[in-house]
Amino acid sequence: MADQSVRGPTSYDPRSRPAPSAVGTDLLALNGMGSFDWDLEAGTYHLDEVGLDVFDLRPEDYDGRPASLASSVTHEDGLRLDAAVTLAIQAGHLTFAAYFQVVCRDGSLRWAHTQGRILRDEQAQPYRIVGIVRNADEELAHAEVMRTLGADRRRQTDFVRATTEALARALTVQDVINVVTDSEGLRRFGADGLALGLIEGSSMRLVAATHPPSPALRAQDDFSLTRLDDQLPLAEAVRTGRPQFIGDQEQLCARFPRLRPYADQMGINAGAFLPLIAQARTLGALGLYYGDSHEFSTEDRNICIALTSAVAQSLQRAVLFDQEREFATTLQTTMLPRRIPQISGGEVAVRYRAGRSGREVGGDWYDVIPLPHGRVGLVVGDVEGHDSHAAAIMGQLRIALRAYAAEGHSPSTVLARASRFLAELDTERSATCIYVEADLETGVLRLARAGHLEPLLRHRGGRTGWPAVRGGLPLGMATAFEADDYPETRLHLNHDGVLLLCTDGLVERPGQDIAEGMAALAAALQSGPLRTEELADHLCHEGSGRAGTEDDMALLLLRRTAAAGGRVPIRAVLHIHQADPEGLVEARAVLRQILSGWAATGPVGDIELVADELITNALVHTDSGATLTVELLGDAGPRVRLEVQDSSSEWPRRRTPGETATSGRGLLLVDALAERWGVQPLGSGKSVWCEFPLPAL
């Protein structure tokens, strides 16, 4: 049985209570009735000897507290007793009565009945309940009565359990509304229609109605937002905090005249109006209406009160959840870029999608950073977690990374410094990230990756691929493992080529291998439209259309545009530093991508070999790096022109090595494989060039 007192536990001393008269006690005992005296203010529940016997309790085993009787009553009947007492107190009734099952000491069950009278003070506040308890096994021995009561109890228990389970899965206020307004929700309440109002300041807003009135009627008298002092049933339920059950239309309209046109139009002939109260706070009210006159039995009222209590608790949790989500979403939105800067030589499109479950906020982010000399920095990252803390970490990390990039550091240095910054924040969160420095004039991309998904490229001809980009540990973890090395990879982006950076929310699905998601994304990019904004929408639609989309997603597209007038200058420039041991390997990879993007066929292997020889000669025999220029010419038939520049004015010499010599054959290879070649002096060095004819493109 529920403890209605809000005061602390009180010691129980039977001697402190006034002794009942001997005649009254004997009469009750002769009829098998025990008495109880429930002091709501002191929090004590006195039982006489017969009452203890009804509950099968020994005097030494009972401490006089209502909560101590909980183990002596079945759980389902305990809920029913709570609902009956609560209804009587809230509705201002003087008495209540209920049947319940007692759990005996030997584990057997027996029926009991209780009836009580509620005593109130001058302010109508209850302070004491007195009554009787008795053994009801004999009067309920008839099988039909038992079956009826059992069916009612099962129905009530099933309804309460089903509603509680459905509400347990509701996260937001809208989720709660969906549970109570669907057909199952109405069936549990036994109603034909439902209206739900929530308090907003000194007013109440109608947030849900299963059968809204016609627009014409709403235009005449719209109470979707009403004052709490209006003479309407939901407002009155909020003001009084008491449930109201009205069984016929005449009584309903006489009490609330403004309901007359609604009752006539919508066929309302009875209604129940219940306050939504959770932890002593009134959130709103729930209205149930019925198409026929309705007799509200005790079981019906108990079901409505129990279900309304579950709805109120879920609404309170959902309101707090919505407030936290709104705060986190606002925080995240302010941390993301407000606008994307215009860049020369390319187009950028970004998209962000919050997850569909949980708090719907996370640490995914994107950024576009203007850099000196016409370059642009592109960032996509994902902070671990899906809460407001992840959004806050994301904002700090984005600002720090943007500052490091604007200082002109290389991609590898930018990520290394960002990793140390995240480690110094003293947080357990890590982050994945990919940073790209793009030179849209030459098409050169310099990339560094920290545990993030690799980029996806679409070449001008429509072919797509996931180029291999070397990477390091996620940001924040590298410093702990003393491995904050993020090697740089160079790629080339042709005109009208597209670079796609995204977080794993676009390719990962529960129960699906990530390779399947990556293949689907590549197919969507290949079949997508040419315009950048339309392509971004296409990719988001394809990604969100697959089942299981629950994670956040950030997407960034970069498209290198053609020159004005529609002419595509097919020319690329690569810089290979002498101190970069990986520069020659990356130069060969970029050259291979350039030729593939041009759909070049024929002597592609010869072109790559000659470029390798010319670059090697510049790196080995001069004191500077090399600059490789690759150009597709078409004035006298399609051909590829290679040009390697260095800072030395000494011209290369053709040698005649012997059979066992290990060097000296570079220019012989150039002469043998190229259609023609030569050397051209420059103001500060020289250039070695060669040309290769190609079949028709």
TrEMBL record:
Q: Which residues form the GAF domain?
A: 168-325
Where's the PPM-type phosphatase domain?
343-560
Q: Which InterPro entries does this one have?
A: Bact_Sigma-Reg, GAF, GAF-like_dom_sf, HATPase_C_sf, HATPase_dom, PAC, PAS, PAS-like_dom_sf
Span list, region Disordered: 1-20
* Recorded superkingdom: Bacteria
Q: List UniProt keywords, sorted A-Z.
A: Hydrolase
Record-given protein name:
SpoIIE family protein phosphatase
* Organism expressing this protein natively: Streptacidiphilus cavernicola
* Organism lineage string: Bacteria, Bacillati, Actinomycetota, Actinomycetes, Kitasatosporales
